[in-house]
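Sharing a chain and its predicted structure for anyone who wants a worked example. Both blocks are below, sequence first, tokens second.
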Amino acid sequence: MSLHASPSRRPSEPVDQTPGRRPWLGVHFVCSGMYQRVYRDLNGDRYLARCPKCGKTITFKVGPGGSNQRFFDVSC
């Protein structure tokens, strides 16, 4: 599985921290050509994305040493 970060459209734009709204990532699955908006889990420690074509799962962990990118291309 290959993962590539795509530059955010507005890199300086902060993540929406409005109560009741969860942060999200944009994930483009190359093998299916589909895009998904993946929301942070309720614990706030990861994003879980699943390819709609092949079913491969990828986890984006939240924490120190992570990426500030908001959009990713995933090849599976």
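Comments welcome. The chain has a mean pLDDT of 83.
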